[in-house]
Amino acid sequence: MTVKYTLLAAMTLVHTGVMANPAPVTDVNRNRQATTAVQSQPTGSIEQRLATLERIVEARSEAQMRMAQQLQLLLDEVSELRGVTETHAYQLSEILQRQRDLYQEIDRRVSAIQAAPVTVPEVQPDSSSTAAYSSDLSENDAYDKAVNMVLKDRRYDAAIPEFENFIRTYPNSGYAPNAHYWLGQLLFNNNELAKAKTHFERVVNNFPQSNKVADALLKLGQVAERENNKDAALRFYRQLVDKHSTATSAKLAQDRINALK
Question: Please, what are the domains in the chain?
Answer without folding.
Answer: 2-80 (no CATH), 136-261 (1.25.40.10)
